[in-house]
Amino acid sequence: MCVTCGCSDDGETKIINLEVSEAEQNHHHTHTLADGTVITHSHSHDTHTEASEFHAKIHGTTISLEQDILAKNNLIAAQNRGWFKGRNIVALNLMSSPGAGKTTLLTRTINDLKHQVSISVIEGDQETTNDAKKIQETGCKVVQINTGTGCHLDASMIDRGLQQLNPPLNSVVMIENVGNLVCPALFDLGEFSKVVILSVTEGEDKPIKYPHMFRASDIMILTKIDLLPYVQFDVQKCIEYAKQVNPKIQIFEVSATTGLGLDNWYKWLTEKITNMSAVITA
User: Fold this and answer.
1) Which helix (H) or strand (E) holds 159?
2) CB-based contacts of 190: which residues, under 8 Å, 6+ apart?
């Protein structure tokens, strides 16, 4: 149990590479105990915690350690950040409530920029590979992380996901976090920037109802603006609330359906790649 937010620990996490068969991602173990009993069990490459608990039961030792979950996470996040920097990779942590339009925006961005920028994706959901399959249809390389009852991605999951994803140098890694406006803001993944996505169907007061998320984010993308004629949403009030919580937050108003406003988002994204390349080669 995560002592930070109360969700389940890493034991239920599944990392799925859609380009690798299920058989390749799993293997079997056989143990012969002292009394001659033979026990066979399976491992997924990503369920090391469960495996450790199983081995501990067989061999008779279980050690419980209390630790600062965020401190451990931040250490791994720092390692991830160095890994990204060394490969000139811009990693973005996309966060929102469920249904805000993260996947729609992501697939539109990939399709529009695929000839300019190399983009790969780590897709986070509690269950299913539905969104990862949508992303894969764009031709983009994607790895799915299923968190089980977990409500967020953490740095360790990203570390393991990157081993499967193996993104190219000089590229962008989009991390689509689990839909949740609370816990994802607490966990540094080693990303270049946190990006919060808010749709006009959710209500303009979200920045002051979930201030930590908007305070932690560098970018707010207001999505589904093509629906403004049909919903009660005060754009200016929403922007005021966001600036009240985070005066430095940069805001883009977009529609992934019509393409409205996407040029500004794309300009910001491509400039970050160019700027990072300039720093690396300087």
Assistant:
1) helix 155-165
2) 76, 77, 78, 79, 80, 81, 82, 83, 84, 91, 155, 158
For the entire predicted model, the pTM comes to 0.80
pLDDT of residue 22: 56
Q: Is 203 left (phi over 0), alpha (psi -120 to 50) or beta?
A: left
Q: Is 85 exposed, middle or buried (0-12, 13-18, 19+ CB in 10 A)?
A: middle
CA gap 156, 189 in Å, rounded: 8
- Cβ atoms of 110 and 140 within 8 Å: the answer is yes
Q: Which H helix or E strand runs over 111?
A: helix 102-113
Mapped onto helix, strand or coil, the DSSP state of residue 118 is: coil
pLDDT for residue 130: 95
Residue 176: left if φ>0, alpha if ψ -120 to 50, beta else—which one? beta
What whole-number distance in Å separates Cα of residue 182 and Cα of residue 197?
Answer: 13
Give the number of C-alpha atoms closer than 13 A to the C-alpha of residue 149, restricted to the C-beta side.
8
Q: How far apart are CA 204 and CA 239, in angstroms?
A: 8
Q: How many residues does the chain have?
A: 282
Contact 25, 9 (CB under 8 A): no
> Which residues of the chain carry a pLDDT beneath 50?
1, 31, 38-41, 45-49, 51-66, 282
